[in-house]
Amino acid sequence: MTSSPLDRWITNDDEVTALLAREWDRQTSTLQLIASENFASPAVMAATGSILTNKYSEGYPGRRYYGGNQVVDEIEELARHRLRSLFGADHANVQPHSGANANVAVYQALLNPGDTVLAMRLDHGGHLTHGSPASITSKIWNFVSYGVTPRSDDPAVPGEVIDFDNVRDLAHAHRPKLIIAGATAYARRIDPAPFREIADEVGALLMFDSAHVAGLIAGGSHPNPVPYADVVTFTTHKTLRGPRGGAILSREEFAKKIDSAVFPGQQGGPLEHAIAAKAVAFKEASLPSFSKYTDQIVANSRAFGAALTSEGFRMVSGGTENHMVLLDLREFDAELTGKEAQEVLDRAGITTNRNQIPDDPRSPFITSGLRVGTAAETTAGLGEQEFATVAALMARALRHRADDGAIDQVHRDVATLCRDFNPYANFLI
Ligand code: DSN
Asked: Which amino acids bring their CB within 6 angstroms of ligand 1?
């Protein structure tokens, strides 16, 4: 078992130390392909584990309810300043504990209960907080959902891409107060311009949920929604490669309402250790090396998707333009569900998640799809060639899933690959 540099902080708790060491081993000896995960830098982790966890700082810089916040004020101001500069936004709120909190705070700031919101269907790639029946959001606000176009087998006609005719028709029919762009299981680039156009036609506000692609935007690999959207929300731990958490960017006119919705509307004391770590991540994301990283993420996805296709998998929407590949498993094997694929790959040391695909006949717990992402293993140093190898390993494990010996062999091959790509040996910062 490899020892973790973090062990020294917790040597007085053998049980937690042992569990952390096991997780360290899992993360560095198996492949991490969950599209919403990444490997944060040692600097981000150091800030997350810092003495700032001890401080209460309810309020905002210069307007705190407790004393002793002189240094904390400077930290939060630095994070806000770096974030505004990174995306060219008027206003930044770095306090949301998560992307879900950020989204709900925006709804609270901009809407009244019962107002109509137009957002992407969860089973077509949207997020729980975009009005899923399972989410509190659908109980407070009236969500109407748009989806993707039908599947197309004609390469000249893109299928399973955002259906802007559907967005426009629903917007005109329901006159939403807010339109949400952004997705959680969608492999195509999302252009903010047509969303702005439709929002303007019906007098709606536009929110861009860039949770997944915030890093790609910061690195310049995807279009920046800030000039188009009234509000942009995101998480800091996915492609942006920071600590777990959320953030909100907005036009100045919404700043006060959004700040009040985050605190005291939604949350109590902010997590200033996470905010310091966000500041570190925002600086890292502004470096030229980060743009190289995000371009490599996209190139790796393309290579990964092509290799998976030649193994017999079908990519939903026929391709990828971001950090993820959404697979329809039925072409590879009609009997193979997303649940079984995830479990088999776990046994083979390849971490993925089952995912519904558009018009999936199977339930969200079983699914016909699998979502894989390249952000984390690109951080670890994998390139296009290695992702082609990963595609072959995945196919081998799934093809021979009834054969324990074959699965064990894939696991050994994965461990060999991971030995050459330790995520914490590849940071240039
Ligand atoms: N739904 C999570 C994901 O994309 O993995 C994020 O909230």
From this structure: 36, 99, 127, 184
